[in-house]
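Structure in, sequence out. Go:
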């Protein structure tokens, strides 16, 4: 089958490109260490499973695991929305493989199909397999059955593929028609709401991988496979990837836009450029969605656990605000993907200036979206009493987390976070204060005065840490270049 062998060669080329690109930035050993970190964490959870399952029934633990995997698949599957930008990426003088159709006799659709397969293999090897592999390593200690672990690998893989392909499908629909996307999401919402409100059926069983985990019925595996093929085929069939063939004309509004950001001082022109990049690339909505989406999914999941599965949860706005900082990293990461900055090496600006400009842009976006999210969530939960404290926590965690990310990773967040050394420093800086805030939020209702005072104290420490790290960005990245 020459067609199949051709695709396999393309997939191998993409895999080699991905490995070389990331290894060149952080080192080959560090790049390969990332799945080992997941393996170790999964191993620790497997060892502690007996204690964990005392408070959480096995079925609900499976449901939570699959929900996390599906959300993970959704987060990495938005390929069609950014197809043009992925294909146009350059790193200095290095062109990506997806650019070859501009000069070689191969179609973008064929090449992007191989890229899609590469993404599936890449994320499976780097996350799903190590996740289940860590559990498998505990078999001699926990007594888990080999067949059960293998079946778990099958079901979580199916969940991952469903999440990824469905996200790919939705992003392809979005790139073609937002009206059709709204209709699709509306129908899905109606089906789920009908199940929740009428209790006529268990909405979780509508997800074939979860139904497969519960029943072991191969019919659900067949259903999941057909859905994966359908979502992938529709997405690839409607995908718009035409780099180099589309041009648009815009009014020269750089000076006017820069004036709008005069309040930031010397960096007003760079702020204007960042805003123009967001608007003209039509990335503003996806970037905000990458921030709000995970927060909304998390809130929905926790509501589902508490209200539908009757898992005892005492959550307030401070709890949600403590986790908001993590999602701000996604905005900073997207801002670094909008444009290749190699051309700025010949301009009288520094990497430090650009990093600080991106931080200011992110702060504006995060300030507005996190405030709107917490206010809306406060109304929905009837918990406006903790809104002020929640907003304080949201602002402090966002500023601290993103500044720490910028300090550690500069303009190459997606690559440097694969480095276990950088990831370790990131975790050391971020996890302790956020965990402390989460724990204190859970005890806030029992002792609001003491817990509130400790929460404010932690926020003050994080604010001081933000100022300290922000000032050291220049020392860390002052001599860095924009080029690859």
């Amino acid at each position: 089958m020459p067609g199949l062998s051709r695709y396999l060669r393309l997939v191998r080329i993409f895999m080699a490109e991905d490995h070389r690109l990331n290894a060149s930035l952080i080192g080959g050993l560090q790049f390969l260490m990332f799945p080992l970190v997941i393996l170790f964490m999964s191993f620790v959870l497997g060892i502690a499973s007996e204690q964990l399952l005392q408070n959480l029934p096995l079925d609900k633990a499976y449901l939570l695991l699959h929900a996390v995997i599906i959300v993970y698949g959704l987060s990495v599957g938005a390929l069609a929305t950014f197809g043009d930008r992925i294909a146009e990426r350059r790193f200095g003088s290095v062109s990506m493989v997806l650019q070859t159709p501009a000069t070689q006799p191969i179609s973008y659709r064929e090449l992007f199909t191989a890229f899609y397969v590469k993404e599936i293999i890449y994320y499976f090897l780097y996350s799903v397999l190590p996740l289940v592999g860590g559990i498998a390593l505990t078999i001699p200690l926990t007594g888990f059955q080999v067949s059960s672990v293998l079946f778990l690998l099958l079901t979580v893989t199916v969940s991952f593929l469903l999440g990824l392909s469905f996200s790919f499908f939705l992003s392809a629909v979005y790139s073609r028609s937002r009206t059709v996307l709204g209709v699709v999401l509306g129908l899905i919402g109606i089906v789920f709401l009908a199940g929740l409100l009428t209790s006529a059926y268990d909405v979780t069983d509508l997800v074939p991988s979860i139904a497969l985990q519960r029943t072991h019925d191969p019919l659900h595996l067949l259903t999941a496979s057909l859905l994966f093929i359908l979502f992938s085929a529709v997405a690839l069939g409607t995908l718009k990837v035409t780099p180099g063939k589309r041009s648009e004309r815009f009014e020269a509004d750089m000076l006017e836009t820069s004036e709008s950001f005069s309040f930031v001082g010397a960096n007003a022109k760079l702020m204007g450029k960042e805003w123009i990049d967001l608007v003209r690339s039509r990335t503003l909505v996806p970037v905000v969605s990458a921030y709000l989406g995970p927060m909304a999914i998390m809130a929905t999941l926790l509501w589902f656990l508490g209200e539908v599965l009757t898992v005892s949860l005492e959550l307030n706005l401070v709890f949600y605000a403590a986790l908001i900082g993590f999602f701000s990293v996604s905005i900073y990461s997207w801002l670094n993907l909008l444009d290749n900055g190699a051309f700025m090496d010949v301009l009288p600006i520094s990497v430090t200036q650009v990093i600080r400009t991106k931080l200011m842009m992110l702060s504006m976006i995060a300030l507005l979206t996190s405030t709107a999210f917490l206010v809306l969530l406060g109304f929905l939960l009837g918990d406006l009493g903790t809104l002020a404290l929640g907003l304080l926590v949201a602002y402090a965690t966002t500023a601290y987390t993103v500044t720490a990310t910028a300090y550690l990773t500069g303009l190459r967040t997606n690559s440097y976070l694969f480095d276990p050394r950088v990831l370790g420093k990131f975790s050391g800086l971020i996890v302790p204060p956020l965990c402390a805030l989460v724990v204190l939020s859970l005890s806030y209702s029992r002792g609001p005065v003491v817990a509130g005072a400790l929460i404010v104290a932690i926020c003050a420490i994080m604010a001081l840490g933000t100022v300290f790290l922000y000032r050291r960005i220049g020392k860390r990245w002052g001599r860095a270049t924009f080029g690859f």
